Amino acid sequence: MANESRPCPCDVGDRFDYGGRGQEVQVEHIKAYVCKPPASTDRAVIVIHDIFGWQLPNTRYMADMLATNGYIAICPDFFVGKEPWKPSDDWSKFDDWRKTRDARKINKEADAVLKYLKEQCAAKKLGVVGFCWGGVAVHHLMMTYPEFKAGVSLYGLIKDSDDVSNLLNPTFFIFAEKDDFIPLHQVTLLEEKLKRNCEVDYEVKIYPGQTHGFVHRKREDISPQDKPYIEEGRKDMINWLNKYV
After folding, report:
1. Could you tell me which of 68, 76, 75, 74 has the C-alpha nearest to residue 37?
2. What Pfam families does UniProt report for this protein, alphabetically (predicted)?
């Protein structure tokens, strides 16, 4: 039984009733969801899912939104067939579950997806966005792969000991003011490290009154007061990619 007093990250919000406009493909050893824009393009974005996995309708909605804005969008299964977290799972076992799905150990999957985008989709300009667990993955990839010309990390969990200032290319960090899982002092510490050490463009932005997962886990038609910030977060994500990819 889930621990209702302390839901796991991303339980705040809604599961969208959304089917997706793209298709599922096999990319070497993993599956992926791909959505392409109406016109041909050499710009592509890897969309990295949260703890609920690559099939979550919310994440596919984000991929389709990027495709609508002119990008080939691909959301691979970075859990490599392992079960995603479910809202009904026991929160007390979350840490053990997460240890078997390390967001910093995804190079094999990233290599396969990059090869697919370059060879099968003729992609030349690449970006990456990620939500929650995927936000942590973005931190890792933006310090490891110079191919990614821009990254957007949405409420990626950070620790006081984390230092992501060794970024290779421009990265945008989106945080929520009322995130129960990412205290604001950690965001401040991140900003201080970036200001001191980062040699590429970056931005850290905190959205007032928002909670963890707001950009992809809140429905703007349910919470009118949140709508401007949900839309702003999505627009900021796309604008950052448009600027650098």
Report:
1. 68
2. DLH
Return the pLDDT at 84: 96
- DSSP label of 80: T
List active site positions. Answer: 132, 179, 212
The CB-side HSE value for 94 (13 A sphere, CA atoms) comes to: 20
- CA dist 34 → 98, 210, 242 (Å): 25, 29, 19
pLDDT tens digits along 74-109: 999 999 999 999 988 998 899 899 999 999 999 999
User: How many domains is the chain partitioned into structurally?
Assistant: 1
- Domain span holding position 198: 23-244
Full-model pTM? 0.94
